[in-house]
Amino acid sequence: MKILLATDSYKQINGVSNSVGLLAQGLRERGHEVKVLSLSENHKSYREGDDYYIGSMDAMIYPDLRFSLARADELIDRLVEWHPDIAHIQTEFSANFLAMKIVKKCDIPYVMTAHTDYEEYFKSKNVNATLARAMIKNFERVVYGKADTLIVPSYKIQELVEIYKVRCPVVVIPTGIELKNYPEMTHGKEQLLQKLGIKNNGKVLVCVSRISKEKNIGELIDYMPALLRKDPEITLLIVGGGPYLDKLREKVDRLELNDSVRFAGMIPSDEVYKYYRVGDIFVCGSTFETQGLTYVEALANALPLVCREDKCLINIIEQGENGFTYTNEEEYVAHILTILSDRALQKKMSTASVGKSYAFSKEVFISSVEQLYLDVIAKHKKGEKATTEL
Questions:
Q1: How many CB atoms are located within 10 Å of the residue 251 CB?
Q2: Measuring CA to CA, how many Å separate 290 from each of 17, 129, 241, 387, 389?
Q3: Residue 106: which of 87, 83, 88, 86 has the closest Cα?
Q4: What is the pLDDT along the chain (390 residues), one digit of tens a residue?
Q5: Do the strands 170-172 and 57-58 form a parallel or antiparallel pair, or are they unpaired?
Q6: In whole angstroms, how far apart are CA 170 and each of 162, 319, 351, 388?
Q7: Which residues contact 72 (CB under 8 A, 6 or more apart)?
Q8: Three-state DSSP class for 18?
Q9: Contact present, 214 and 121 (Cβ < 8 Å)
Q10: SS3 category, 177
Q11: ∠31-33-36 over CA atoms, to 5°?
């Protein structure tokens, strides 16, 4: 197949970019011809092999979001001449509009992926919930409604688009990860702990995340005093960078938790597994995730999970088997202490996490999307809408 992938975010450090990059790589490995349409980091358009970047500017309204005012571009014309068999649009914004020009000129089917829970995002910005839902409902019905199929990464987003009455077929296909990128840590753990200032016999809670307000990492810091009263050997390790980092550092200073909370900063992607592996439990306070690749990465790195209750955790956390969900401080503290006080339970949960991670492998992800493309193309040729359920 000749497949066009369109995204506003490509080769950046975020979940959408990782998902698109993995998909492009996996499809190319299977012999498909894949071209990626995205936005450049400046006003100039350019091409790098099969990756096409259209000039853009910073939107300044959402992390990493850029927008393009381009109405015509030589690179768009080249993609029309190439004539893909199908387009897979991974954004609701600029690259979507650019890709739709190609879809219409080539008369090809297209699928979309809904990556973001905008309702939760606006809630984090203190936008009136009723107003936000009304705006998003109308916006998503228009943007997604004419797609041949809408892919959602979790049942949480499937439920949302059903509430919004999006009128196109919807299928759940979780984004996969490359499991081989998360090997066991055979050496270097003691040195890394020493570098981070963590005792080698300490108990480490690890949070890997973009450091932004909506990720609710501050809650994990707020819960530390209650944990430390029960077990002073516990350390919270926060891995990642982002615009809210200074605020979190200030909170740690204010609560006098500098000995018990460590910030690792931004870590190269091929090194991140080491930071999971020095942890005993993966923790997350976010309800902003649509799937949460860090949850899946934690599974692959053999960690029990303790995360704030959220529908995106369906089929990820099996309560009491590979972790727990919590709704308040009391539950969070109890779950953490339950795991840390029972090494046999911790080992059992670690094994269960690894087993669960196989369902989110790159191979399962690519196969599911590939089959959907074939179904959509076949039905388009017959003048039908795809109804595949995966």
A1: 16
A2: 14, 18, 20, 22, 19
A3: 83
A4: 999 999 998 987 777 888 999 999 999 999 999 999 999 989 999 999 999 999 998 776 665 677 887 777 999 999 999 999 999 999 999 999 999 999 999 999 999 999 988 887 787 778 888 888 888 889 899 999 999 999 999 999 999 999 999 999 999 999 999 999 999 998 999 999 999 999 888 899 999 999 999 999 999 999 999 999 999 999 999 999 999 999 999 999 999 999 999 999 999 989 999 999 999 999 999 999 988 899 999 999 999 999 999 999 999 999 999 999 999 999 999 999 999 999 999 999 999 999 999 999 999 999 999 999 999 999 999 987 654 443
A5: unpaired
A6: 9, 27, 33, 9
A7: none
A8: helix
A9: yes
A10: strand
A11: 130
Place of tokens 């080539």: 106
Tokens 């709704």 correspond to: 327
- Alpha-carbon distance values, 318 to 23, 82, 152, 220, 298 (Å): 27, 46, 21, 21, 14
DSSP secondary structure letter of residue 280 = S
- DSSP codes joined into one string, 99-154: HHHHHHHHT--EEEE----HHHHHHHTT--HHHHHHHHHHHHHHHHTTSSEEEESS
Q: Residue 29 burial by CB count (10 A; 0-12/13-18/19+): exposed, middle or buried? A: exposed
Of 230, 264, 263, nearest in space to 336 by CA? 230
- Confidence (pTM): 0.89
